[in-house]
Amino acid sequence: MTQLTIGELLRRHRLDALLTQKGLADLLPYDHTTISRIERNERLPPEGYLDHFAEALHLTEAQLQEMMAAFHGSDSEQTDYPTIPTRHEDWGEAPDVSAFYGRYDDLVTLSQWLADDNCRLVVLLGMGGIGKTALATKLVRQTADKFVYVMWRSLRNAPPLRELLTECIQFLSDQQEIDLPERTDKVITRLIHYLATQRCLLILDNAEAILQEGHAGHYRPGYEDYGQLIQRLGESQHTSCVIITSREKPREVGQMEGEDAPVRSHPLSGLQIEEGRQILAGKRLTGSNDAWETLVQHYSGNPLALNIVAEMIREVYDGNIDYFLTDEAIIFGRIGDVLDEQFTRLSALEQSLMYWLAIEREPVSREMLLDDLVESISRRELMLALRSLRRRSLVEQSGAVFTLQNVVMEYMTDQLVTKICEEIWDGKIGLLNSHVLIMATAKEYLRESQERLILQPIADHLLAYSQQKILQKRIKIFMDIVRAKNPPLRGYFGGNIINLLRHLNWDLSNYNFSQLAIWQAYLSDVSLQDVDFTGVDIAKSAFAKSFDIVFSVAFHPDGKILAVGTSDGQIFQRQVSDGRLFFNYKGHIDPVSSIVFSHDGRTLASGSRDQTVKLWNVNNGQCLNTLQGHTNAVWSVAFSPDGHFLASSSDDHTVKLWNVSNGQCLNTFQGHTNGVNSIAFNPDGRFLASGSDDQTVKLWDLNNGHCLNTLQGHINGVLSVTFNVDDHILISGSCDKTIKLWNVNNGHCLNTLHGHANWVRSVVLSPNNRFLASGSDDKTVKLWDLNNGHCLNTLHGHTNAIRSVALSLNGRFLASGSDDQTIKLWDLNNGHCLNTLKEHTNVIRSVAFSPDSHFLASGSHDKIIKIWNVNNGQCVSTLRGHTNGVNSIAFNPDGRFLASGSDDQTIKLWDLNNGHCLNTLQGHIDGIWSVAIGIKGRFLVSGSRDKMIKLWDIRTGKCLNTLQGHTNAIRSVTLNTNSRILASGSQDQTIKLWNIQTGECLKTLRPDRPYERMNITGVTGLTEAQKASLKALGAVDYSEITHET
After folding, report:
1. How many CA atoms lie within 13 A of 483 on its CB side?
2. Pairing mode, if any, of strands 121-125 and 623-628?
3. Do 168 and 255 lie in a common domain?
4. 3-state secondary structure of 218
5. Which DSSP state fits 236?
6. Same domain flag for 638 and 766
7. Predicted pLDDT at 843
8. Which strands make up the sheet holding 781-785, listed edge to edge?
9. What predicted TM-score, i.e. pTM, was given to this entire model?
10. 737 near 756, Cβ under 8 Å?
């Protein structure tokens, strides 16, 4: 018999104990990742592991000795194990260092610190532009083979510490660590754990961005927790190394560093004379040896300063260094002086582009810059200006995108902040109109960075020198001046003012923004009641969204449009780039479970819980056909590859095949024994796959409707299925938290992907067939490499289960829809969240105290009601009878009986002495969400999803009256103390007061919506769908009212 390895033996004992790896981790002082690696024989158990293991699983002495023998057998063969696992690298924004000069001594010293001295924390110090980033990159490239994980992150945009820690832990845990502790110190502990588990090299570039200028070693307000991180990185025992580059030394480093300590700092001086000449070799400069030496020494060997000055020498002094040095008036000392001089020499267009590149923060294309500019210029003018800036070493180009070097970006950001403040104080309009302060339609993390680094310093400066009332008055006068201009001023002025006021948390109610251009205003989280937007050009702005819980998402084939299906039966069609709303499809009366575009992009299909399938014209939003035949909720719809057929799957256990042109049902596939959650055509359209709650996947022949194969292996319901492009592989995601890859030809399971901590609700394959995306109830989206089954990335951000994921056909974007009421758009290149579309929800809970407070009743979606003794917490009674979830319960005044309202459309009256059902009240045609009993216990009131309120005689069970007037589900009903007035609360966002005796509606109360009474008369820059969305949130177009009158 073959002897088991230590990993195999430990796994067997764990399975015998019916424990998962995470369950075992709860019993041991080790995490599940370590346990997994030990069981896969990727590493040996650490000292003390076997004793802890034996104690936790209550193993016998003989079993412990067996493990010890296996351990020592593995130890003698350890040379068979890979000593260094596959290296994992994430280079982030690390620059190209193919052209690197000098620094030999620096590299030798630093390489020794990393490889031989095992330093935990190394800080590279030096002035801006001196070459810290390039040296760090070169060092890491040379020493990367000594580490298992290499990760580079720039702090240039000052990310909050938790955001940085989350990215690091995700990467170092191979995307396994999902739920991080709330407290920062505990999150840091998790990072230290990974740094101690395997040898990692982490680089944090541009740390000066989180330090406070003018207070050496101190952190900017809000970034003090970075000090705790640096302290822990230097003090904790770990085998990894963290490299930090900074212009100044964090104070914690000064307290820990030493010549032989594991924490060291390395000041970086300028280039030597010959090295300086080398980097300027392409500038075509001439000069004597003495001139070269003077030039390099004068600028302290600073590569950035030398490159910028060299271009000026070439332009102004014909490339002659000696001529330049004889002109004493032009010699500069600081890098800031060099940039000042160069900036003044730029053309107006070149200066404008410099400001825009500082605002954009990330590399951008020529097309994006052209779109940013207020004034129209030709593509040729833009290219010439960018070429000039590159030649001056002010702009860096990588492929087709452009950005600023770190020092230059910081300089331009400071210039922008200073100029904007001056314009506000002086009442002059320049940059405030030609350039934006934050980009409302930008990626979410980028907009937040712009707020921190641009808007916040402006706000701080203004408040430091002026009282709020004075500043408000000045801004209103400023707006009046702009409003009076003829012709009207086009640009960013209005949007900048609104963004600034929003950032200052000022109440914008009743503000007059009429007749202004309001571009790039971020209004998603702003209340604008009674604001005047008459005649406003409001292009490129972001508004609050007016849709409900997101149930489904789908990309248009061109990748430019996203469709969203919501719980209130609506479908929204939005532009991906800026979230702009095109159409709002209305027709379903229940949640839209599934949506899909036809392959030609002309038709959209939707499946709903209202048991119907609808076909929509994408160009005009009209409903083309309604397909009826299912007898329960429709969960999934899919077009055949040729677009002639549509398949739908339902909770009625069937799959139906429809003719798209005439809406006829061609076939009904029966065989599943539970609801069918997902369907997918194979690429050539010959057969169909379906995944069901019966834990199986079935393959169907479309010609005859026969079931070709049933794939079994999941141990819980199958929520999603999809094919790869070559027909041979089918992928399924399940409630059992796994994803399975199946061979379609023989039905064999090829691979099982583990990693999600909860149900896998949705899976989708990338267009290039190389990776898979999955959405789960664990609140994450995971990206998987199909070649090896490894998790490539875990996208965090949702706060509830993810029901749906979709990939754009260009492979650049992923959309995810969640029960947290949001849709998130993700950039697949870096895993960043580009945008979050927010909406509202209503959570159902049902508890009630008895009148004497001795008992508590609870109603649940498990269809039962429990009565609890408040004093001891014991359940004294369980009431059964409802056939669906119990939404509302109410005691009668003397506490002798209980009323319950349920999704089964009934109200039940219960005798609490014996638990018997006294009566069942029927009459509502949808679920009942609220019940209330009159003060004398003679009548009962119920509110339902059917939009009706019913008044019942408790003694006879007869319906006395039906009150109608609400336009959406009724969430809550209650009676006043004398039971003469009834109040009802509805999802139509109103409260109605009713006279119980007459049934008359006395008053309708509506809380102000975000844009209540906002005047959008004559607004331009919006689509009709966007206008409709604003009106749904309270905005008013008075021209329409006048016309109707």
Report:
1. 16
2. unpaired
3. yes
4. coil
5. S
6. yes
7. 32
8. 760-765, 771-776, 781-785, 791-795
9. 0.55
10. yes
